[in-house]
Specification:
The chain is α/β, with parallel strands linked by helices. Helices cover 40% and strands 21% of the residues. It contains 14 helices and 14 strands. Helix 7 crosses helix 8. The structure holds adenosine monophosphate (AMP).
């Protein structure tokens, strides 16, 4: 049966149509600049990319256009062929510990969590409502970025701030990229073929987070109350001393919004290199002995290794480290620097030849290595489709 996996942003809508349970991608695409006069609709069919620029005023029009094009391009004969729609939802708070079938109440809950994800949750809810309007009889499922981390124990999710902040306002670690950590850790468990497992998943893309996974359950993760926490990222700082904020705000005469925007958009690889948020540019800079790029690369590697090291201790050793997402799947030099920095303490030995892999599943440690190191491409759309299939059945 055909399942649509949807990732709606405030002005965009990414989609993938999958044949399930075969897990084959039939078509995929992206609608950008929703609400502008020059919205861009792109759909990939049989390897060809079709692109159209026209005004798409809102998400309902975007959804209608997507469904029309599936018919016009003869990808489906009628809407009834689409048996389920799965939506990525960024924040599920403490309420959602797994994916759920969408009801009016669930949509209201997703909207009510907007204080925790002001840019994302309202956009996700808008996407869901648009599909409910146009396909009222098709079952929809919400798949939350936070749900997989709801198994974290209190010692991992609580901040040592006034306890009242947690009880009254929900201030705690939630963690994100849950669908990705879940997918790659489950795949690693299959590859390890063991019942009791200790895995560290390293999702490093433009955003990044690391998780400690014991017997398939998340017990700690580097992102926190928001996705700004944890490791250094493309444009995000990751963890910093919060007292820096009032200090810099006073020095520069800027508002809290500007200061937080600087930590979200002007920091990380971009902020330190003063060049780019993209690891490819940073690595090119390192090869040209650009001092700012070397500094950014080294800082990135250190911060990733600090989390892996602490999760190694937390788990009491580890069977496998799994690299995934844009940098984790593709950047030979980033993986090499991380593994080599950890190597002598954790007994990990990199297979330099295997580490040349890009975007494919591969074991990149040698047989003598005490910890296996895998590259496992993440597939969040597939997790959405799998969960949708499970819940609509
Ligand atoms: P993602 O957020 O998972 O899509 O990852 C996007 C990021 O992955 C980019 O900003 C790059 O930093 C990184 N990336 C993608 N391809 C490569 C590559 N071939 N080598 C190094 N980094 C890459």
């Amino acid at each position: 049966m055909k399942i649509l996996a949807i990732n709606a942003g405030s002005s965009s809508l990414k989609f993938q149509l999958l044949e399930m349970p075969q897990k084959t991608v039939i078509t995929s695409g992206l609608i950008e600049r929703i609400g502008f006069d020059d919205s861009i609709y792109t759909i990939k069919v049989n390897g060809d990319k079709i692109k159209e620029v026209k005004s798409i005023p809102n998400h309902s029009v975007a959804v209608q256009m997507l469904l029309d094009s599936l018919i016009n391009l003869k990808i489906v004969e009628n809407y009834e062929e689409i048996r389920g729609v799965g939506h990525r939802v960024v924040h599920g708070g403490e309420k959602f510990v797994d994916s759920v079938l969408i009801t009016d109440e669930v949509i209201n809950e997703i909207e009510a969590l907007k204080d925790f994800a002001p840019l994302h949750n309202p956009a996700n809810a808008t996407g869901i409502r648009a599909f409910s309007e146009i396909l009222p009889n098709v079952k929809q499922v919400a798949v939350f970025d936070t749900a997989f981390h709801q198994t974290m124990p209190e010692e991992a999710y609580l901040y040592p701030a006034p306890y009242k902040w947690y009880k009254a306002y929900g201030v705690r670690r939630y963690g994100f990229h849950g669908t990705s950590h879940k997918y790659v850790s489950q795949r690693a468990i299959e590859l390890l073929n063991k019942e009791v497992t200790k895995i560290i998943t390293v999702h490093i893309g433009n955003g990044g987070s690391i998780s400690a996974i014991k017997n398939g359950k998340s017990i700690d993760t580097s992102m926190g109350f928001t996705p700004l926490a944890g490791i250094m990222m493309g444009t995000r700082s990751g963890d910093i001393d919060p007292s820096i904020l009032p200090y810099v705000m006073e020095k520069e005469g800027i508002s809290i919004e500007k200061a937080i925007t600087a930590l979200n958009n002007e920091s990380g690889l971009k902020g330190i290199s003063n060049k780019s948020s993209d690891m490819r540019d940073i690595v090119n800079g390192v090869n040209e002995f650009d001092g700012n790029c070397v500094r950014a690369f080294n800082l990135f590697v250190k911060r990733v290794c600090d989390f892996i090291g602490s999760y190694f201790i937390l788990l009491g050793g580890c069977d496998a480290i799994v690299f995934t997402a844009g940098i984790g799947e593709n950047s030979e030099p980033a993986r090499k620097a991380i593994v080599e920095r950890l190597g002598s303490s954790l007994g990990i030995i990199l297979d330099n030849e295997a580490n040349k892999v890009m975007g494919e599943e591969k074991i990149i440690s040698t047989p003598e290595s005490k910890v296996k190191v895998f590259v496992i491409p993440t597939d969040e759309e597939l997790v959405i489709a799998i969960d949708t299939l499970r819940l609509i059945k």
